[in-house]
């Protein structure tokens, strides 16, 4: 479909940004311009204004639309980009007046995603999001082909071209959802295998352009694409790394989030975002130098809530190189657990502290336990000695002993399972080590 084909080279665009005093959905103009840059658009003009509320027909007022039309004509612009969500009717009305293509914020983000998708899975997800967006924008542009008017030579198959288009779209959307469901199942099997092998997953999340890919490359020694663009990373990247005190660990770099991320994108990328939802630890990367830091934090937390992510979160304040008064450090909560780490992924400052905090967050707590070892549990006793977790042993009169061990819960459960036992069968006393 021509909808998905983009002309080569940047297109000339007029950007429109309106402040809505009663709407509560104001977007960031700087971020909008960076979105346009990320879409390889040449910004010819930026038109701003303010309204109490959006106009139902044109979103902007008629006077502002005339100003936009004049700019389009003088600058020979090919597209007008609105930093807002437009209804299908508003898009059609604006295109009729402006005599050029009109895209809203959602359409612009979808276009960036279409350019960045590299893997088969990524392309499927982008196409699904685009089709979902397009399905509400089909209009009666095919009346000359309609064959339902009756009469000789005008009797047809019983559906208009518009209905045919909608039916074909529904079929394609259904097909894409089935294929993505298979991707989701494959990912679930991979996660189950890693969990069975005791390999934890650490997922990097954060606002777009916060420096996730740069940090990912530092931690994993990888060469994932990193650039000062929004949505530089689209396809998820997984790498296996070794962490001191933890062992093999899977590190996942994911797509960046943005304020008011289109719902169809969240739905389309649900298979990918499940890597985030099912992670053992989330590294929430934050641009520490951004003036909108708190807004970005809230936007990411909203998407995490939407995809059902419940893993512990470690905040990573990145770009410390832009804050000359800050030093790398770990912030702890009242219980002594790492809560935030301040680093510079670009310069590598504070990465040793980040690895230390990751180890503390992912590692299971150590427990000091007193176990009753009867004579028939000689193999279990040998396992504990083999792991090097025995701190002391006191023999008893029955030929058994009381074993004091310092061990992590997963290791204890694995040892007991091999003997067909549960914790209550052997543990006499327990405490945090």
TrEMBL record:
<dbReference type="InterPro" id="IPR006073">
    <property type="entry name" value="GTP-bd"/>
</dbReference>
<dbReference type="Pfam" id="PF01926">
    <property type="entry name" value="MMR_HSR1"/>
</dbReference>
<dbReference type="GO" id="GO:0016787">
    <property type="term" value="F:hydrolase activity"/>
</dbReference>
<dbReference type="InterPro" id="IPR027417">
    <property type="entry name" value="P-loop_NTPase"/>
</dbReference>
<protein>
    <recommendedName>
        <fullName>GTPase HflX</fullName>
    </recommendedName>
</protein>
<keyword id="KW-0963">Cytoplasm</keyword>
<dbReference type="InterPro" id="IPR025121">
    <property type="entry name" value="GTPase_HflX_N"/>
</dbReference>
<comment type="function">
    <text>GTPase that associates with the 50S ribosomal subunit and may have a role during protein synthesis or ribosome biogenesis.</text>
</comment>
<dbReference type="InterPro" id="IPR042108">
    <property type="entry name" value="GTPase_HflX_N_sf"/>
</dbReference>
<feature type="domain" description="Hflx-type G">
    <location>
        <begin position="200"/>
        <end position="369"/>
    </location>
</feature>
<dbReference type="Pfam" id="PF13167">
    <property type="entry name" value="GTP-bdg_N"/>
</dbReference>
<keyword id="KW-0460">Magnesium</keyword>
<keyword id="KW-0479">Metal-binding</keyword>
<comment type="subunit">
    <text>Monomer. Associates with the 50S ribosomal subunit.</text>
</comment>
<dbReference type="InterPro" id="IPR032305">
    <property type="entry name" value="GTP-bd_M"/>
</dbReference>
<keyword id="KW-0547">Nucleotide-binding</keyword>
<keyword id="KW-0378">Hydrolase</keyword>
<dbReference type="InterPro" id="IPR016496">
    <property type="entry name" value="GTPase_HflX"/>
</dbReference>
<comment type="similarity">
    <text>Belongs to the TRAFAC class OBG-HflX-like GTPase superfamily. HflX GTPase family.</text>
</comment>
<dbReference type="Pfam" id="PF16360">
    <property type="entry name" value="GTP-bdg_M"/>
</dbReference>
<dbReference type="InterPro" id="IPR030394">
    <property type="entry name" value="G_HFLX_dom"/>
</dbReference>
<keyword id="KW-0342">GTP-binding</keyword>
């Amino acid at each position: 479909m021509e909808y998905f084909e983009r002309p080569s080279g940047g297109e000339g665009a007029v950007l429109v940004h309106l402040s809505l005093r009663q709407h509560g959905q104001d977007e960031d103009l700087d971020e909008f311009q960076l979105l346009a840059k990320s879409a390889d658009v040449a910004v010819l003009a930026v038109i701003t204004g303010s309204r109490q509320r959006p106009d139902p027909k044109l979103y902007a007022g008629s006077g502002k639309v005339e100003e936009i039309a004049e700019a389009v004509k003088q600058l020979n612009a090919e597209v007008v980009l609105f930093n807002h969500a437009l209804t299908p009717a508003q898009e059609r009305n604006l295109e009729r007046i402006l005599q050029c293509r009109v895209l809203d914020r959602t359409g612009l983000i979808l276009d960036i995603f279409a350019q960045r998708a590299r893997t088969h899975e990524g392309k499927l997800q982008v196409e699904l999001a685009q089709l979902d967006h397009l399905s509400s924008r089909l209009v009666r542009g095919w009346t000359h082909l309609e064959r339902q008017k009756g009469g000789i030579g005008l009797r047809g198959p019983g559906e208009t071209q518009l209905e045919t288009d909608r039916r074909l779209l529904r079929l394609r959307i259904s097909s894409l959802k089935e294929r993505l469901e298979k991707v989701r199942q494959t990912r679930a099997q991979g996660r189950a295998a890693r969990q069975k092998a005791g390999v934890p997953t650490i997922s990097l999340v954060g606002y777009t352009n916060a420096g996730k890919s740069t940090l990912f490359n530092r931690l994993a020694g990888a060469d994932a694409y990193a650039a000062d663009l929004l949505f530089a990373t689209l396809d998820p990247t997984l790498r296996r790394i070794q962490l001191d005190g933890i062992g093999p660990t899977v590190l996942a770099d994911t797509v960046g989030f943005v304020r008011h991320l289109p719902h169809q994108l969240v739905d389309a990328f649900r298979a990918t975002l499940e890597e985030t939802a099912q992670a053992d630890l989330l590294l929430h990367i934050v641009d520490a130098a951004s003036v909108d830091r708190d807004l970005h934090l809230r936007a990411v937390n909203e998407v995490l809530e939407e995809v059902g992510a419940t893993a512990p979160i470690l905040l990573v304040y990145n770009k410390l190189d832009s804050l000359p008064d800050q030093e790398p450090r770990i912030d702890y909560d009242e219980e002594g657990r790492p809560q935030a780490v301040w680093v510079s992924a670009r310069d590598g400052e504070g990465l040793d502290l980040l690895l230390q905090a990751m180890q503390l967050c992912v590692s299971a707590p150590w427990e000091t336990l007193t176990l009753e070892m009867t004579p028939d549990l000689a193999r279990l006793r040998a396992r504990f000695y083999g792991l090097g977790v025995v701190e002391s042993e006191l023999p008893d009169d029955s030929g058994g002993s009381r074993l004091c061990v310092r061990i992590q819960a997963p290791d204890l459960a694995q040892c007991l399972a091999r003997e067909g036992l549960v914790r209550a069968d052997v543990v006499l006393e327990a405490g945090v080590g």
